[in-house]
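Record format v2
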Amino acid sequence: NAGVMQNPRHLVRRRGQEARLRCSPMKGHSHVYWYRQLPEEGLKFMVYLQKENIIDESGMPKERFSAEFPKEGPSILRIQQVVRGDSAAYFCASPGPGTGTGEAFFGQGTRLTVV
Amino acid sequence: DQQVKQNSPSLSVQEGRISILNCDYTNSMFDYFLWYKKYPAEGPTFLISISSIKDKNEDGRFTVFLNKSAKHLSLHIVPSQPGDSAVYFCAATFLSSGSARQLTFGSGTQLTVLP
């Protein structure tokens, strides 16, 4: 987990507000994955980004969710008009050294609570 | 459609004994399988992986077995230690378009090692 930084660790939003989750990958890495873990479930893939490019967004909900990874700065997962069902832990990950195996280093996550 | 299943939500084992965690999958395209360990309020930590062309991989106290014909894998921890108490996630991956290697996770098994 060392090196992948996520903030904030905890985020509380009222229904209808926007949530912005930030992720800085491991130093020197230019790709990030975002995953979501709903209560009592496993992690589910959302999106895979390279700097300035979305490579695979097949796991992203069709509405209200967007992700970016600008040339400078962290990757941002943005949720507009949050609803109670968005309450979850959101993790980002850097691909590991054995990228052919799917190994990834995860951050500590952002726990989003929608009230 | 759960492509990776962990049917035991919890497992309790006495310290020093063997812990066996099981996982089943349905997608024949998976070519790597991984086990992650997760403590509360932290991100998942990579433990061990296995290629689909192998049937066993060992790393210290951890051994993963793959039965491809049964689409089943298991993680053995010997000897179990109290510090092993955590949620264990089975994950699987294949190389998708755009070089993404997203992980498909099971729902996890809570392992408790009793002193």
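The interface with chain A takes residues 4, 6, 32, 34, 36, 41-46, 49, 51, 89, 91, 93, 96-108 of chain B (CB under 8 Å).
Chain B has a mean pLDDT of 94.
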